[in-house]
Design a protein that fits this description.
The complex is a heterodimer of chains A (170) and B (161). By secondary structure, chain A is mainly α. Helices cover 72% and strands 0% of the residues of chain A. The longest helix of chain A is centred in the last third of the chain and has 23 residues. Chain B is an alpha+beta fold. Classes of the chains: A mainly alpha (170), B alpha+beta (161). The interface between A and B is medium-sized, with 31 and 25 residues.
Chain lengths: 170, 161
């Protein structure tokens, strides 16, 4: 059974039972990916990532019956994470990650700190493409943008990271 | 992909939130266990489980941990109660000592890392029954109606030393 088939099996089981056991099976399959993205978007602040993760799963469960399988389930879930993060954090002033609350990456990780300071759109694309491994097509669908926009955002984000690293070294 | 293991308590927190929002069905297991508890009381009264008979075998005792099925079985509650009473009566008539209790849903898991509340989980009750040997204990467990309802029973021999 491949990954998509297993996802379909778990989703069908959940939609049929709507109970905690079937949800837990689905959650555990994607918990690491969903939480990892939330944590990186939140700049390593674990408490914020917990809240984003919880809200993302609530939304996913509300909408799961309408999921049409036009994308991978993981892509869809990560798209919800990004949307939740945008709504709850994206408009807020960006600050330095709080070292005391960071789980991953550790304080002192220059690249992670610089990524956390990028504008929301650039940060999303950089994390989704270079860290999470999504394609530009998947990112475009997730974020509701064009493929070309994803590519140009990524290019700008990488350039910003390179420039910030060069400035810090000089 | 770069997965990160979430905090261990986050899963339970999300499940509780889903339950609060009405996005998860209430476990139907509770109803099944309630009937099992009723049967336990009824059967205890009916067949005198806890009074040891003089001719009870002195074989080893076994712990039977009852895991309820996730879904409500097709048999109605009166039928389930009758089935459990019949099973208990059969053990009594075979001269076995038998005791047991229903467990309340929930509970806690303790470790060096701390205390973690347990969400709804399948362990719903237990019996302690005397049997001639391992094979006999397995026959006793296999005859419990819970098996036919899709539940599971864990059988462990009690170390009497």
């Amino acid at each position: 059974m491949n990954d998509d088939e297993e996802d379909r099996r778990l989703v069908e089981r959940f939609l049929g039972a709507r109970d905690a056991a079937s949800f837990r099976a689905l959650y555990r399959r994607h918990a690491g990916g969903v939480y990892g993205l939330a944590l990186r978007l939140c700049g390593g602040r674990a408490a914020e990532a917990d809240d984003v993760t919880q809200e993302a799963w609530l939304r996913a469960v509300r909408r799961l019956g309408a999921f049409a399988w036009r994308s991978r389930l993981r892509t869809w879930l990560c798209g919800i994470v990004v949307n939740v993060w945008r709504e709850t954090h994206g408009a807020a002033p960006r600050g330095e990650p709080a070292p005391e609350a960071m789980v991953s990456p550790p304080a002192g990780d220059d690249v992670a700190r610089i990524v956390a300071s990028l504008p929301p759109g650039a940060r999303e694309v950089l994390l989704l493409h270079d860290v999470e491994g999504f394609t530009h097509a998947e990112i475009a669908e997730m974020l509701g943008i064009e493929d070309g926009t994803s590519k140009s955002q990524l290019s700008r984000a990488r350039a910003a990271v390179r420039a910030a690293l060069a400035t810090e070294k000089s | 992909m770069n997965d990160v293991t979430p905090p261990p308590d986050l899963e339970d927190r999300i499940v509780r939130a889903l339950e609060r929002e009405g996005l998860l069905r209430r476990p139907r297991r509770a109803a099944l266990l309630a009937s099992a508890a009723a049967a336990l009381v009824a059967a205890g009264v009916a067949v005198g489980w806890f009074a040891r008979r003089d001719d009870a075998p002195n074989g080893p005792r076994y712990l039977l941990l009852l895991e309820s099925p996730a879904a409500e079985p097709p048999a109605g509650e009166p039928e389930r109660v009758s089935a459990i009473i019949a099973w208990a009566r059969g053990q009594r008539e075979a001269g076995r000592r038998l005791g047991g209790e229903k467990l309340v849903d929930g509970g806690w898991q303790l470790s060096a890392a701390g205390t973690r509340p347990l969400a709804a989980q399948p362990l719903g009750g237990y019996f302690v029954v005397s049997a001639a040997d391992d094979a006999d204990a397995l026959r006793v467990a296999a005859a419990h109606p819970l098996i036919g309802w899709g539940g599971r029973i864990l059988v462990r021999r009690i170390d009497e030393l």
